[in-house]
Each structure stands twice: as structure tokens, then as C-alpha cells.
Design goal:
Elements: E1 3-4, E2 12-16, E3 20-25, H1 41-52, E4 62-63, E5 72-78, H2 83-92, E6 97-104, E7 112-122, E8 127-131, E9 139-150, E10 155-161, H3 168-175, E11 199-207, E12 214-218, H4 225-228
Parallel strand pairs: 5-11
Antiparallel strand pairs: 1-2, 2-3, 3-5, 4-5, 6-10, 6-11, 7-8, 7-9, 9-10, 11-12
Length: 231
């Protein structure tokens, strides 16, 4: 099921039913409101629901998880108070399988590998540092990657997460010298013009919290020359 809301926000809905709505976040959208005052994705989705279903008054929408602002891809929201705690538990228990795509400047040393690091977060910098050994206040981070396409000047990686740490993919790939395109914070030479990074939440698989049916969602990456060459 793929719908488009034709308004200035250009919201791309990947799946919706009475209990959940799943959208394809554009790079640089924020999922929830913050100090910038920019309109968050959660409000855009509420507007979409109110408009589509002619809902008077406040629209219920529960935020289940987030993506970093410069990242694009799948974001799940709960449409009912029944679905929200079930989705929260599903994500907390790692029962939602997440796959990401990342475009990196330097191809990793191996075509596929499992990376294990201990990440320590620096809140002042809003950055996580990857260490090869456990240090105080660090959290274990594990991911699998494989190179799925070689581009002219970049490589496309597919990444499966085993843990969900702050800036995990960005930090771990940077630590092996494969910095994500546009990610200045983790060592890229230059930023992308729109402030995005080439990291995309590509695929999500989980069991529907109410219907109990398996659900797999795939989100097309943003349209730009590099992402377009990844298809």
C-alpha cells in the first residue's frame, strides 16, 4: 500500500491501517519537535490523518522510535493507545528487524563483516565514540554489513543492526574508515548541500501488534544522483 499526500509537505505513506501508520521520512525532517521549532514529522502525519479521515479535534499519534535528523527512511507511528505500548515493547525487545543502506566514500576492508564496538556517548557533542574494548559507561554495539554495490566513487552497504545505540551505524562505520557520505560529524570531507547524510532506513520487518500478521516494509531512498544509481 503506497499513498502520497499531495501538499506542501509531500508526505510519503508506506503503510497505514487503523492501528499504525508507517512513513518514509525525508532527510532533514525531525521526527518529534525540538528547540529548532521546525514542524516535526509527527505533526505532519497528524495533519494528514485529520485531513484524510475528516477528524475533528486532536488526532492521536504515538511516537514509537526516531531517526537522526539527517537520515531518511522508515518511521513507525501508533494510531491508537492500544498499539503504542505493544509497538514500544516490540522495538525494545529487538523484535523489529531493521535494515539500513549507507553510501560510504571508502569501501570497507572486507566485503561483509560483523562489527563489534563499545560506544561511549558525548552528550555535549551529540556524538558517540567507538572503542574496540569496553570502557566505563560504554555500551556494546553490534552490526552486520555487506557491500551490495560499487559505485563510481562510493560503495553501497546494507546494514543489519543487532543493537540500537546512539549514532551506532555512523560511529561504527567511521571507526573502520568508511565514513557515510555527507556525515561531517563523523569525518566526511564535505557535507551534502541539503544537510542530509547518505544513510537510509531501508527495510523493517515485524509482527503487527494487533493483527499479529508479519509485516515487511521497504522504503525507496531519496531521489538524488547517487541514491538513484543504487537501485
Amino acid at each position: 500500500m503506497l499513498n502520497y499526500l499531495s501538499n506542501k509537505n509531500n508526505l510519503q505513506v508506506l503503510y497505514e491501517d487503523n492501528h499504525i501508520i508507517i512513513v518514509n521520512k525525508r532527510p532533514c525532517d525531525i521526527v518529534q519537535g525540538d528547540k529548532t521549532g521546525d514542524t516535526p514529522l509527527s505533526e505532519i502525519v497528524k495533519e494528514y490523518i485529520a485531513e484524510k479521515y475528516n477528524k475533528p479535534g486532536a488526532v492521536y499519534l504515538g511516537v514509537v522510535h526516531r531517526l537522526d535528523r539527517p537520515t531518511s527512511g522508515i518511521v513507525v507511528f501508533a494510531r491508537t493507545s492500544k498499539a503504542l505500548p505493544r509497538l514500544n515493547k516490540l522495538f525494545a525487545d529487538k523484535e523489529a528487524k531493521k535494515t539500513y543502506w549507507a553510501v560510504v566514500k571508502n569501501q570497507p576492508p572486507k566485503k561483509e563483516d560483523t562489527l563489534t564496538h563499545w560506544l561511549k556517548r558525548n552528550p555535549k557533542q551529540n556524538k558517540s565514540y567507538a572503542h574496540t574494548n569496553e570502557i566505563p559507561d560504554s555500551k556494546k554495539a553490534i552490526l552486520d554489513y555487506k557491500v551490495i554495490k560499487k559505485l563510481d566513487h562510493y560503495a553501497l552497504l546494507e546494514i543489519d543492526l543487532h543493537t540500537g545505540r546512539h549514532h551506532q551505524i555512523r560511529s561504527q562505520l567511521s571507526s573502520i574508515g568508511s565514513v557515510i557520505k555527507g556525515d561531517l560529524k563523523y569525518g566526511a570531507n564535505r557535507s551534502n548541500k541539503d544537510g542530509s547524510i547518505h544513510l537510509h532506513a531501508r527495510k523493517l520487518s515485524f509482527v503487527h501488534p494487533v493483527k499479529k500478521e508479519p509485516l515487511t516494509i521497504i522504503a525507496p531512498p531519496p531521489s538524488d544522483p547517487i541514491w538513484n544509481s543504487c537501485h
